[in-house]
User: What shape does this take?
Amino acid sequence: MTGTGNAALDTAASDAVARSRFTGGARTGCSYPYWRTPATLAAPPSPPVASLRPADATCPEKHEWATAPAPFYPETFRRRSIEGWAVLSYDVASWGEPGNVRVLAAQPAAAFGLAAERGLKGARGTPAKQGLTGCVDTVRFLIGAQAGQPIGAAYCVRHANTAASMAVAAPSRR
Assistant: This one.
């Protein structure tokens, strides 16, 4: 029998198959697919947002959203339990629509930047007398039981220029 490389798991699997109520007698040529969930691969450290913020920015460190950004976790990376982040620069018009959205940096792949950018384009800021320019935020794509999400969930956390953050659930497969 070939196995997982884990002797205890292989023994437990053999015992479980031998006790199966569906077939009796000796088993030959049988295979049963077992798989392990991949270990989470953490994202590399992200750059400090303050170092990427333009000097002439009018965007406060924390601003309100009427409709919060809702990025979706890139599926190919969620399936392989790979975390990532993206740093976005954007402006917010006085009527609340984000514009001039640019990905300043994304790791470990550009897919995280594209997902964060798409999520931000669907957001709406609180209308104000004057628009905001030079906003910079980091969106973190995380796997696991963090920020109150269930184990195995994939979700995004938007970090503003302050310590405040907002968790946005992304679809996860069990």
Observations:
- Residues 160-174 have pLDDT under 50 and may be disordered.
